[in-house]
Amino acid sequence: MDKLQEAIELFNKRKYDAALFILDEILEKDENDFSALRQKGKIFVEMCQYEKALPYFEKAYELNKTPEYEGELGVCHYLLKQYDKAQIHLIQSVVEKYDDYFARTLEKALLSKHNDDAMLGLKLLMYENNPKDIYILRDITNIAQKLKKFDIAIEFFEILLELCPDDYVAWNNFGLVLEELNRWDEAYDCYKKSLKLKDFFSPNFNLGIMSRKLHLFSDSVKYLKKAVLQNPNSPQPRYSLAMSYLMMKDFEKGYPLYANHMTKIMPYFYKNEWDGNARPDSTLCIFATGGLGDMIMFARYFDYLIGNFKKIYVLLPKTLHSIIKANYPFVEVIDSDIVFTNFDYAITPMHILKFFNLDFTKFVPGQKGYLEVSDELVNKFKLKFFDVKCPKVAINWHGNREGTRTFFNRSMPINKFEPIFEKYKDRIMFYSIQKDESHKEIEKYPFVVDMYNQIKTFEDTAAILKNCDLLISIDSSPVHMAGALNVPTYVMLPYSNEWRWFIDDKKSIWYDSVEIFRQNKEADWDSVIEKVLVELDGRF
């Protein structure tokens, strides 16, 4: 038996000191004996002396650049929590020659760095070497779904479900991918298969949302009620149930759920909720922390609070401060970015309807407008941008995706406006009021005036809109501002729209000046533009 083999035998018997003694003898004769260096590193790893092990693995790999040696070096870096270095060596090792132990160690290193892209690549490599491993398949589908690499997700969901047709979790998650791709009927079928295999929260919740998107409202209510029972502590199914009731204009059932959900998403310093009774010696804070459109839309109800409190505060983003101050001088506006606790009672704007029994199916105040902007600011914009003879039309095509399942498709590609531009660019002056980075998309249409740099607050937006004959917009906060100013507006909606526009209404119940144009099917903006063109022909 040679010396190295003797050292290995002693190592296997956990006689580490004796093994190290022999290895030192070998290295004294030849300091570049990479096998002895490697074995010495392995002993120190077994003894949990990782810092001592590292230089031996480094030198062994320098002398013998094989995938195995590099993998062991990567493992040592991982044990030292040097995750970046561990990833570099382990990725190179498993790509060159797959080893399951090194792959599993790399998986842990990638998890520590939250490196999802590299993790997906690793899982695909692991699948090539373990094609029947269900857990690897599940990981691939989950990571690809998270990264929105839907082609990969679909490919591996199909493989997984062929191997495990009773995997109810996979059927449910497959539905989520198909839903995001607007393959709604297929998504609906996946959720149904999941539910048939196991009656649990997720498919009921997803079927509730999917049924509402497909305008199957009674089914939506049925599934969401089950989801509420199955997960009573989750606010989401109750909120979604509220959405379905409200889409049906069932104020009595939907609105309390909606208002209560708004309470649950308030900041931690929301306290001592008002019960609706007058408190003339106390102060009230309105936590208007929903979307900007919500804040504008529900501001119409502030007047109902007059006389109930000695002082009323309202928490708002800075962009709304000036116009709310100008229109509601009895409230003190507070920046919603700060922690404000100097009040006695709190509510959300949605509670005002609830407390004053203001059923929006019977009565909506301010339908002809309830906000104003100063003539001075309107004239300032007029002189600079709007002193032209032709009609002036503002456009807005992009919104954020907060509440993504509600707003999957509310934004519209700017090129969808091209039929309107082609027909009217010589007769109408177009103004972009887009207030995000998508405003740059208008550069390819030089006849459109980009107002991006002119808009600092919603008061500026309001002044611009007052100078326009019409706003054409997707469902976004400028629509609410235009409606509150009584500016003519065409709002363009996806097939599955937000609840406040309901289903068949062609005119908004909230704003007399807002007309509604709906998709015939999801993601079909061409049909909407065709309808808008017909109306523009009559208007201009």
Task: Tell me the layout of helices and strands.
Elements: H1 3-12, H2 16-29, H3 34-46, H4 50-63, H5 67-79, H6 83-96, H7 100-113, H8 116-129, H9 134-146, H10 150-163, H11 168-180, H12 184-197, H13 201-213, H14 217-230, H15 235-247, H16 251-264, E1 279-287, H17 292-298, E2 309-316, H18 318-327, E3 331-335, E4 345-347, H19 350-355, H20 375-386, E5 392-396, H21 418-424, E6 429-432, E7 448-450, H22 458-466, E8 470-474, H23 477-484, E9 489-493, E10 514-518, H24 525-539
Parallel strand pairs: 1-2, 1-4, 2-3, 5-6, 5-8, 6-7, 8-9, 9-10
Helix pairs in contact: 1-2, 1-3, 2-3, 3-4, 4-5, 5-6, 5-7, 6-7, 7-8, 8-9, 9-10, 9-11, 10-11, 11-12, 11-13, 12-13, 13-14, 13-15, 14-15, 15-16, 17-23, 20-22
CATH architecture term of the largest domain: Alpha Horseshoe
Can you count the beta strands? Answer: 10
Structural class: alpha/beta
- The overall number of domains is 3
% residues in beta strands: 5-15%
Look at the structure and give the CATH class of the largest domain: Mainly Alpha
The CATH H-level superfamily of the largest domain is Tetratricopeptide repeat domain
Query: How are the strands of the biggest sheet laid out side by side?
Result: 7-6-5-8-9-10
Major sheet summary line:
6 strands, parallel
